[in-house]
Amino acid sequence: MHTFLNPLHGAHVGRHEMFRGRLVDSHESPARVEHVLSEWRRRPLGELREPAMSDDELMPALRAVHEPRYLDFLRSAWDDWVALDPANAAIDALPSVWPLPNRHGFRQDGWPENIAARLGQFAFDSGTPLTAGSWVAARAGAACALSAAQAVLGGDRCAFALTRPPGHHAGPGFYGGYCFLNNAAIAAQALRDGGHARVAVLDVDYHHGNGTQTVFYERADVLTLSIHGDPRTEYPFFLGHADERGAGAGEGFNRNWPLPRGTGLAPWCAAFDEALQAVADFGATALVVPLGLDTFEGDPISGFKLRSADYAGIGAALASLKLPTVITFEGGYAVAEVGINTVNLLEGFERAA
Ligand code: OKP
Ligand code: ZN
Fold it and tell me: What predicted TM-score, i.e. pTM, was given to this entire model?
């Protein structure tokens, strides 16, 4: 299994995020990927590649998942933020005002020009710092996910996109949860466009993959599955319930397994086994796994109780599906252990493959 490392991930460094009314240090740091990389170097599993990609090749894949006006916003948001006030160059861009849908006075045709308002037009939280390097880093990360999908289309059994910022909270026209471009969705769409008839996305991050769910919600060709903390108490709160099953042509092609805080390996695996069965029943020809390691018992912002050794078994179970597989790196904030947990899973997959 080759690893597609984002060489520009360090361009995105969030300084602070809003949490319950306070600005706090961001949990999503470059050290996360550096720890995975150093553990991977101790236990390498194939080649380490640092893909570079032209806009000509990359942009169509981004446009297949994200709205043009959202991509335009992302590319220029930092410059617009600094143009608003030169002093903004020293501060991360965070929204502080949002449109509410379905309220008198909210106009779909009356979008504001002020960047402070446009941040709220596209972001669903105030916990996702947009920085000088966010676009550059997210763009290069999407290129890693696309390269991983291309490797799998070329015959590789599995490919790992090692990148940050993560992606699974980013939707067609929205960002949040530290995510700007949905790397897993971009890989899934690339697999579809490369000839796979049915692609399954099995999200094992602690947080519901609300972005990925939204991208594919009305489609029957991409099955989206997510196992996560119950949105009644856990971020991202407004999506991820068990009764969200897809809509229109996509009815029946989305499934969620919300689990309570404190969930340990056995009940987590019961949900995981159902999800694996759903992938098999769907007749998937390829698999994408948004891999969050924030299900770990030591994670500072999450509530499940998985242990480091458990990840090898999860990797082996994923491999048992016998599908061409793209794995994208998502959450995991216990920085000292995130490398061990990640490589445990990859090694478990590789040994069982
Ligand atoms: C992104 B991913 C922490 C509050 C929670 C959002 C968490 C985003 C998780 N101060 N902030 O799914 O791991
Ligand atoms: Zn997460």
Answer: 0.98
